[in-house]
Amino acid sequence: MFFRRAILGKSEKFCANNGNCDQNEMILACKLCRFQKCLNLGMKLNTNQYVNLSDLIESLSRRNSDRSNKLMGFQCLDDPNLAQVIEKFPALTKKSTDEKLTKSEWGFMEQLTTLEFINKFEFAQLLETNDLHVIFKATCFKTATLIKAIRSYSIKSAFIQYPDGESIVPHQLVPFCTDDFLARVQSRLIGKLVELNIKEEEFLLLTSVLVCNPAVDNLSDEGRSILTIQQKIYTSALFQYCLITYQQQGPSRFTELLSVCHVINKHIEDIGQLCFMFTFRPPTEKYKRLCAELLSS
Fold it and tell me: What residues does the Nuclear receptor domain cover (predicted)?
């Protein structure tokens, strides 16, 4: 029971004895060290045994709805970097209905609310600060990209856009982009979502698989172990959903959904080319530190 509670996020994040509770025979009093010993002993989790699929999807849906409400209804006047966001999430203020945000402001709020969304995953309660910084920097922009594409897809837009309807490609860079490149950066990911006719439940579980990525460079061994188990939970849940929903076609549907991750990576490469164009045509808006840091990852 302890291992189940820990893996679902009900364990402590810090150890008062710097990880030496086992040596000091105090391990039963320290949830973090007790959980780490479970991992060291090779304990694994059978997702179907411990995780109720409908409850998991409902929890993800609530968290995503909260993220969306904050994105659409609030703004942040601070200019934090990633380390400052991890230490203390900045205050949000409610914005008026007629207040318009610039592209850079929308981009900042997308990254900020996505970070808060990711921080509510179970692994965030178990990882050390250094590992949190690594996984946030590696996955936030990709996650925000998928979220933005899904929002655009849900309103039947042919291209990825900000909530105010503006294209993600800055106006001053359009003359320097080929038609093929513009089509790729604005519509390739949307096209994949349309092709799959992706459902909300699939989006939520796929996003979770994307977030819990143990293959990220510079993670500690402990952090990689925690993320490996967490990703297995959501991968298994997505596979279970596909089997229930599509039955015999479930395995192929599961593979098709995972292929979205490849398209996201290609989209991120295109965004990198857009950023490179700023070398020759500097942006007219100043991007906040958090966005600049995440874009450089």
Answer: 1-50
Considering the domain architecture, whether residues 68 and 11 belong to the same structural domain is answered as no
Same domain? 34 vs 103: no
Q: Flag whether pLDDT at 259 surpasses 80.
A: yes
Nearest to 211 by CA among 195, 230, 189, 226: 230
pLDDT higher than 70, residue 51? no
Q: Count the neighbouring beta carbons within 10 Å of the beta carbon of residue 228.
A: 17
CATH number, position 192: 1.10.565.10
What average pLDDT does the segment 179-199 reach? 95
Same domain, 61 and 36: no
Confidence of residue 14 (pLDDT cuts 50, 70, 90): low
Domain that holds residue 194: 52-295
pTM for the whole thing? 0.83
Our measurement of the distance from residue 40's CA atom to the centroid of its chain's CA atoms, rounded to an integer in Å, reads 27
